[in-house]
Amino acid sequence: MFNKFTEIAERACQGHAATADEALVVLQSSDDQLLDLVATTSKVRRQHFGNLVKINYLVNLKSGLCPEDCGYCSQRLGSETDVLKYPWLSQADAQRQAEFGLSGGASRVCLVASGRGPSNRDVGKVSNMVTSIKSSNPGVEVCACLGFLKDGQAETLKASGVDAYNHNLNTAESHYPEICSTHTFDDRVDTVTRAREAGMSPCSGLIVGMGETDEQVIEAIQGLQAIDSDSIPVNFLIPFEDTPLAGTYELSPQKSMRILCAVRLMCPDRELRIAGGREMHLRSWQPLSLHIANSLFLGDYLTVEGQTAEADLDMVVDGGFEIVGADESAVELRDRVRAHRRAHQQAFESETVPDTPPEPGDTLTLPCGKSAGSSAGSGGAVPIPSIRRRGAGTDQVPNA
Predict the structure, then answer these.
(1) Which of 5, 67, 205, 345 keeps 20 to 30 A from 104, CA to CA?
(2) What is the DSSP letter of 364?
(3) What is the DSSP letter of 386?
(4) Is 173 in contact with 129 (CB distance < 8 Å)?
(5) Share of the chain above pLDDT 90, in %
(6) Helix axes 20-27, 2-13, angle to 10 degrees
(7) SS3 state of residue 330
(8) Quick one: pLDDT at residue 347?
C-alpha cells in the first residue's frame, strides 16, 4: 500500500490528479497506514506550495436570521441556537475588523454575510467596504461570500476590487437533498460559475461529517474539480443544537486527515484550507495537517470561536513554515502578535469592565447546546467550540 500512495503522490507532484478510485483507497486506508499516507501526500503540498502557509481572516458582516434551511448551519431558518445576530456592520467597522486580521498575518480578508443572497444595494455596500479596505491596505486580497448572485452582481463586485468569491458546494450532489430543501446543488454551481465568469477566483469547498459516505466525499471533490475551484476550504461539521445535525459526531482526527489527503491528491495544485471545526475534529493533529493543507483561517469563525491566534501562529512556526505575503518571519510575526495581545490584556484588566470573555477551552459546556460527547471512532471526548462573543458585532477585541 505504501508503494501505491507513493505512486499516486509522484503523479500528483507533476500535477496529475488522483482518480476517484485512488482517492477512495486513501479514504478507506487504515490508521496504521496514516503516517505513510501523510508523508507521501506532504510531498505534493511541498511541490506546489513550498513551505508557505496562507492566512485568511473572516469578517462576519451580517450574522443570523438566514431564510435558508441548511441543516448544518447555526444561522438557518428557525434556528434557536444562541449565536450573535446583528445587521450589516458599518463600513468603518468592517474595515476595523479586517485590519485586525491583516495585522495578525492575513493576506486575504473574507467578507461574509448571512442570507440567501445580496440585494443590489447590499452589493454596493460591500463594494464600498472593499474599496476602503484596499485603499488602506495595498496588496490585500478580498474574498466576498454573500450567497447566491443575480445578474450583474458578480461584475459589480469584481469592478470594486473583489479578488475571489466563496460559495461552498458543501457536499455531493447526491447528498444535497439530505441537508437542504430551500435551494439545490445546481443553484450553488450557478453562483460559482457567475463569479468565475466575472473574473473572480472561485473559492468553494466542503463540509464533512454530515452523514455522507466515502463515495460521496469523492463525488463532492469531483464537483469542486468540475467548477475549477482555486481555493478549497474543508470544514468539519460543528453539530449545533437546534439544527437537524445536532449530536452528529462521525469524524475522528484520523478520518479528518484522510479526507484532507484525498482532497490534496485530487486537487494537487489548489489552495487547501483547514477551516471551521478543525479544532474540534483534527485536535492534536492540527499542526500535522499543515503538511497537507497550505492555508488556514486565523482565529475565530462566523459564529464560533477558534483557538487563539497565537496558537494558530505557533502551528505555523513550529512546522517550519513561513507566511504568504508577510514582511517579517513567522516567528517575528507570532511574537509581535503575542506581545500586542499581552499589552492589550494588561490594559483591559486595569479598567473596570463587565465580564471578561472566556478563552476557548475554559469550559467544555456546549454553547451549541449539548455536553461534550465522544466522536465516533475517536475514543475520547470531543472539544466543543464556544459560541463567538467577540469581534464583529460586539464591543470586544477579536481573536486575531
Answers:
(1) 205
(2) -
(3) P
(4) no
(5) 84
(6) 130
(7) helix
(8) 65
